[in-house]
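Proteins fold. Shown next:

***
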Amino acid sequence: MKTITDRLGVFNNKRVFNILCILLSLYPLRWTFTGLDLWDVGYSCVNFTYFGRDNIGDTWFFSTYLATALGHVFSRLPFGNTLAGLKFLCGLVISVNSFCSLFFCRYKLKLRKLSVLLGGLLAVSLCYIPTVIVYNHLSFLLLNLAVIFMYMGLEEDKPVYLAVSGFFIGINIFVRFSNITQPFLIAGVICYCVIRKYDLKSFAGRILACVSGYLGAVGIMVIVMSRYGINSYVSGVKGLFEMTEEASDYKPAAMLFRMVDSYIRGARRLVDIALFVLVAVAATLIIQFAGKRLSHRKGTAGKSKTETVDVYVTGRIINIVTFVTGVALVVYMIRRQLMQFYFHHYITVILTAAMFIDISMLVCIYIITGRKFGGRYKMISLVMLLYVIVLSVGSNTSMAPIMNSMFILAPFTVDRIYKIYKKR
C-alpha cells in the first residue's frame, strides 16, 4: 500500500509541477462570468472606457495613470466592451503575477515543489479584490517583479537586474501614487551587502544600479506627464493629499493604525489558538492515561462482576469527559471568534489571514536574526518583511493589499516553516 509520502511524490515530477503552476495561474479567472458589482467595478470600467482628465478628474487620473491607461487598452480589445471581457483581460494581470512568482519560488529560491503549490493555492485563494481594480493588481505585479529582479541581481551579481528592479519600483508610483513608499525595499540590497561584507565600491555600485533604475523610470514618466503639463500633475496629486481633510481614514496615522490593529488582532488569535492547543493536549494526555489504566484493568484475568461494572462505568466516564471537553473547546473557539460564521463579511477570512501574515513576519524575523540561514534567505526575508509594511501603508483597506499579493510570501513561509520544523 502506498503511503501518503509516496502519493505526494507525484508533485515532485517537474512536468506535473509545471502544469499545476499553470493551472494555479489561471485560477483567478474562475469568476469571469460570475457576479455583478456596480460599485468599485463599475467605477473602474467607466474610467477604462472613458479615459481622460475631463471624465475622471485630475486627482484620480494622475494618481492611477498607468493602471487606468492599461484598462483603457483592455477596453479596446475584442470583448473589452463587456464586463465579462474586462474581468477576463484584467484577471490576466493576476495570472501573470502568480505564474512569475511561483516559478521564481521554485527555480530561483529553490523552495520545495509541494510548498510552492500549497503556498500558491493559498495566495490565489486569498486574492479577492475584483480583477478590474487594476491599480491594485498591477501594483502587486510590478512590486513582485521588482523583488524577483532584485534577488537575481544580488545572487547572480548582475547590476542590470538591480536597475530593472529599481525601474519597476519607480514606474509603480504612476500605477498608484501611494506606492511612493516602495523604494524602502532597496533596504534589502543594503542588508545583503552588509551580510556579504562587500567593500565600499561594490556596495555603492549595487545601490547606484537600483537607484538609477528607479530614477530612470521616474524620468520617463515625468516626460509622459509633461504632455498634460507638470503643473496639472502636481495639482492633481496635491488633491490626493487634500482628501485627508474630508476622509480621515486616508490620513497616514489612520492607515497605520488600521494595519497595526489587524496584525494585533491576528496575534491575539495566535495566543488563543496556543491556549486551545495546550488544553486539547492536556485533555488528550489525561484521557490516554485513564484509558491505559482501564486497559490494564481489562487485562486482569478472572475479573469479578464488580470489577466488570467498574470497568464499564470508567469507560463511560472517559467518553463523557471526552465529549464535554470537545464541546467546551468548540464553545471556547466560538466565544473567542476562532470559529467565524459571518460569511456575509470578509472578516471571516481577514482575521485568519492576519494570523498567517503574523506567522510570516515571525518566520522572517527568525531567519534574519538566526545564524543557521544563508545570506540569500536573510535578504529575501528582510525584503518580505518590508514588503508587508510598505504594501499596507498608503491604503485605507488595512491589510487587504498584502492579503491579495502573497504570491511569494505564502510559498516562502510554508517552505521555511517546514524547514525549521525539520531541523528541530
